[in-house]
Every structure is written in C-alpha cells, then in structure tokens.
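Intended use. Records like the one below are meant for learning the mapping from a protein sequence to its folded structure. Do not use them to infer anything beyond what is encoded.
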Amino acid sequence: MQSFAYKVRSELCRTGVQRLCCARAEAYGVLLFANTFSAREVRIITENPEFASRLPKLFHRAFSLKFDTVPEDDTRGKLIFRITDPDKLHRIINQFGYDPRQSFAQHVNFAMVEDECCRASFLRGAFLSGGSVTDPEKRYHLELATSHIQASREVSALLTEMGFVPHTVMRGASSVIYFKQSEHIEDFLTTIGAPVSAMDIMTAKVDKEIRNRTNRAFNCDMANMEKSLDAARGQLSAIERLRDHGTLDDLPEKLRQTALLRLEYPELSLQDLARRCVPPVSKSCINHRIRKLMELAEEKNSRESEDAPTLSQNDEK
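Structure written out for the chain above:
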C-alpha cells in the first residue's frame, strides 16, 4: 500500500515545469536537500519512480545536462542518480553563484527565488528530495531535512517570510524544518503544487472531528446510562426492602403504583416510568415519589437498627 508521502510526491511530479527559472529553482531545492551536493559529487536517492522519472527531464531543462549514473529500468527500491563529471558539476555550481574552486558551505542564493513561482518550485524540489509527511489519519507532521545547516536556516527564514510558521530541530547531522499544525501543512502542500493531498488532510481532519464528537457523545450517553442504572438499582433496593417488610400494601395508592412500576420495569428511565403511570405524570412528579419511597425505606432501616437488641457483657460470655 502506498504511503501518504508517496502519494504527495506523485502528485507533485505531475506538475509541469515550463519556465526555465522555475526549473532551475526546483533543481536547486532538490540539490540542497539531496543526499550529496558538493564540488565533487551530486547524488540523489529516491524510492519514488515518478520522481525518478522527473529528475532527468528537470536537470536537462535546468542545466542542459544528463546524469552520469542513472538506475536501470527494472531497478526497484532505492534509485540512485549521480553526477561526478567536473564540467557538469562546475556548470551546476556556477549557476547558483558558488565558487567551484573553493570548499563551499551551501547557502540559499535568494536571487534564484525572487519570484513567487520560483519559490514554490524551489520548495517543491526541497520536498521531493528531502521531505516527508505523515499520514494525516495518524498525526500531522511534515518535514524537510538536509545536512546543509546554513541552507536549512535560510530556507526556514524564507518560509517565515512567506507567512509560514516553521520549527527547526537538529537530528544527528541533519537540520530538520517541520510543521505540526494541519493548517500549515495544508497551506504548504497547496503552495508547492499538491492541492489534492492538502484536501485529503482537510478531509481526514473533518473525519477525525466527527469521530471524536461521536465518541464523546457515546461516552457521555454511556456515563448517563450507567448513572441512571446505578440510581435505578438504589431505587429497587429501597422498594424491595419495603416489600420484604410487608409495607407496600400500606402505602398510599400513588406511591404503591410507583413502587410496583419500578419493580416491573427496573431498566426504564424516570421519564419512561412517568409515562406508564395511570394517569401519566411528569418526570419531576415520579422523581418526587421515588425519593419518598427511598426515605420510607431508610426510616424503616433506621427504626430496625434502633430496635435491634444489643448484647450485654454477660450475653457475650
């Protein structure tokens, strides 16, 4: 079964790249969040075949070059793309304003992401290369991870400038930008070209809220039912004590009728019990009668306790 992150990548890969500036911006995001991006090697690893199909087209459009190493057509699992040719690497690095003659620390060249469309493309590339998102049925979490610490800080600043609220954390040697609010994840996915996946999150959230409300209502109903059953058991016990003492027949007609109804229908609520009275009465009326019956039973118990003989010391011996 395909993961939610897999479906998001597949949706993003269906987004066309027409403008050269956007192709370069997306490739830039891919490289900064790739497994390796240095003056000696570019290595991109993915398990998504649609992203793997997109990469050669994207790099040809952005840099007019081909990868030195590509996976075989029947390769499954990890698909590896590499560039080691010095001329190709020089072309890529020079495109982003880095100096290939020096050991450079990758940072974001903001001139590459000035336009809104290029920013969206850049972030799409970053997610395709180093992003992940959790199934919204489980929890809300989207992240972008890279080993280029400075670039990660600058991407976080870019997201903040765009109105997002990113969080950052170090995980081993990688810097991770992440979102945990569903609204932020929805907005991010919509921005980078995955509105269907964003809608899936909204739908999952609504479904969760409906389930939670249903569960709360069910739990409340169960608690109320248990409370009613406990009350009914107490009422039955009191009425049974009156019956065992032979005092039911001596009660006023209305109280006797109520006592017999409760004995016959122990599971009914007071509202339903009130409807079975002849003539029917209100819930408050039946409640008053029940309380009176319980008071009479309590008085009977109290009198019996007072009348019970106590053992003297001689009796105990």
